[in-house]
Structure formats: C-alpha cells, structure tokens
Amino acid sequence: MHVIIETERLILRRFESGEGQLIYTLNEDPEVTRYTGDPVRDLAHANEVLDQVILPQYALYNHGRWAVHTKPGMEFIGWCGLKYRPERDEVDLGYRFIKSAWGKGYASEAAMASINYGFEKLGLRRIVGRAMPGNIASIKVLEKCGMRFVGEELVDGHPAVTYELTS
Predict the structure, then answer these.
(1) CATH no. for residue 49?
(2) pLDDT, tens only, 79-118
(3) pTM of the complete model beyond 0.70
(4) Antiparallel, parallel or unpaired: β 126-131 and 90-97
C-alpha cells in the first residue's frame, strides 16, 4: 500500500490495479453521483476508469485521486485528491464519499490535506475546485478549505461554480 497522506482520522493512498470494485461500489449510489456528471456504468467501466484515468495520473504527475480510508479500521469511504487537467492546464481538487461518510468532516479533512500536499510537497501555485451549483455540501467543503469563488462556467458540458486557492 502506497500511503500519500495521513491525517488525524484518515489515510489517503494510491489506488492499485484491480481495485475497480471500490470505485464501482462508491458510484452505485445515485445520490453519490447526483452532482458528478460521470456515473460508472458497471464493474468493467470502473476498472477502465481506474486503469485509464486514475492510475496514469500517478506516473505522469505524481498525484491523482487517492483512495480514502478511515483509521484505525481502514474502511474505504471514497476518494479525494488532485488531478491535472491538461486541456485546462490546471490542477483540480476533487472528492467523492459514500453516503455513510457524509456530514462527518471527512471531505473537508481529506480536501485540506490534499491542498496542503499540493502546495507543500508538489510546489503547486494554484489549485481549482468545482461543484455543480446545486451541490451545497461540496461548495461548503471548498469554502471551508479557504478557496475563493471565482465564477460560474460550463465545464465538461455541465454548469459549475469554480473556486481557487493560490499558494
């Protein structure tokens, strides 16, 4: 297991090949994917996302979306992390958690740790966070992390509110 970040309550680690089931299970709940615009269709699709999107980011950019587990039992509760978007030339903060982990501060804790990692370990100058306008909980996480609102835009065919934080 390749641990990237450890917080008071969480372990953020690299996903490994063959862990598509974690992504599939997370995305099975329509409430989890309500504001994402990218539901996973089946286990084969989850494995494809893992192998073609998530894992290559680690090798290319030394960061990506990381599996998030609670301490001490290592229960998988979702993912969080930084993703380079070459088409926009920016690093995006993202997070997605199972419903039973909502409202416990895990998203804010993992997001803040990811931001700190990006600035302190990777030397990033700017990190962007986005949410669909109706996703109030996600917007609150961005604000709690100190990100500032910069505007609304259309991203990947979906309306988004955009926030940013600079080092």
Answers:
(1) 3.40.630.30
(2) 999 999 999 999 999 999 989 999 999 999 999 999 999 9
(3) yes
(4) parallel
